[in-house]
């Protein structure tokens, strides 16, 4: 459970950072939307198991 919780917390932090960067730099919206869903959602959750 601890590992999963940490992974989810890391994901939340990464998403927050991406959102902040997106707000500061409104130029790369496409790369932002394509990156978080695939690399962040699956690889982090699956390896933790």
List the helices and strands and how they pair.
Layout: H1 2-24, H2 29-34, H3 36-48
Helix pairs in contact: 1-3
Describe the protein.
- With 49 residues, this protein is mainly alpha-helical.
- The chain has one domain (2-48).
- 86% of the residues lie in helices and 0% in strands.
- The chain is built from three helices and no strands.
- Helix 1 (2-24) runs antiparallel to helix 3.
- The protein is rod-shaped and about 35 Å long.
- Mean pLDDT is 68; it is low at 35-44.
| Number of DSSP helical runs | 3
Rg result: 12 Å
Order of helices and strands: HHH
Number of domains: 1
Number of extended strands:
0
Taking the alpha carbons of the first and last residues, their distance comes to 10 Å
Helix content: over 70%
Average pLDDT confidence is: 68
Low-pLDDT segments: 35-44
Strand content: under 5%
Structural class: mainly alpha
Assembly type of the shown chains?
A: single chain
Task: Specify the biggest β-sheet.
Answer: none
What is the overall silhouette? rod-shaped
List keywords for this structure.
86% helix; mainly alpha; 3 helices; 49 residues
Outline:
The protein has 3 helices and no strands.
